[in-house]
Each structure stands twice: as C-alpha cells, then as structure tokens.
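Exercise 7. Given the encoded structure of a 117-residue chain, write a plausible sequence.
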C-alpha cells in the first residue's frame, strides 16, 4: 500500500506563494505518475499537474507559468510550488500516486489553500 500526507496549505493573499508537499510512503517501484488535484468549494475535483517517473510534467492551462510540480529523487516527496496565487486557486489540494505497473491509485486527505485579501 501507499500512504500520502499533504502539508503546506494555508491562507495567502492574492499574488502570494505557497509550496505544498506530499510525503509518500510505501512501494511505488516501476513506472508511476504523481499528481496534484484540487477541489474548489462546491465544485468537482480537478486535475492540476502531474509528473511521471520519467520526469515528464503536465499542467492544466489555468496554472501554467504559475505552478511547478517536482519530486525528490528518492520518490518520497512530491511538491507543488504555487506562485502568483489568485482567489480562483482556493481549494482543497490533494496528492495522488498512480502505479502504472503495480496498479493502484492512492490519495492523500488533502490540504486547504485559501487565497484571499
């Protein structure tokens, strides 16, 4: 099994920055995809960014140029650097790991990000 714990959320003013972290434990050997998703108030969960085991990254258009996903080489932590935050970025942010070869998709419990003046 894989366990994920997010941290780093909080309240920030528009234009500010936050760095989310996701601590990963358990077996994720083989190809995988690590990602961040978010769920704004009253809306469905949506994809934000992913990084593969081959370091390929992808972003939803609304965060391109503002957010950066990365991971450490030991595969124990995945990060989401969020710059120039806007009120529309307010959401609960969730970390996800999908194991391509071993199977399984795992979620953390989420961390709240609120962008408000």
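Solution.
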């Amino acid at each position: 099994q894989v366990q994920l714990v997010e941290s780093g959320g909080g309240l920030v003013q528009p234009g500010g920055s936050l760095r989310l972290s996701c601590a990963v434990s358990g077996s994720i050997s083989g190809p995988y995809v690590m990602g961040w998703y978010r769920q704004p108030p009253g809306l469905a969960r949506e994809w934000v960014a992913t990084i593969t085991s081959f370091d390929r990254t992808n972003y939803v258009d609304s965060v391109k140029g503002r957010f950066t996903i990365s991971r450490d080489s030991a595969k124990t932590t995945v990060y989401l650097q969020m710059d120039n935050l806007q009120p529309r970025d307010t959401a609960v942010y969730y970390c996800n790991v999908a194991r391509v070869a071993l199977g399984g998709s795992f979620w953390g419990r989420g961390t709240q990000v609120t962008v408000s003046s």
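Remark. The two ends are 40 Å apart (CA to CA). Students should compare their own answers with the one above.
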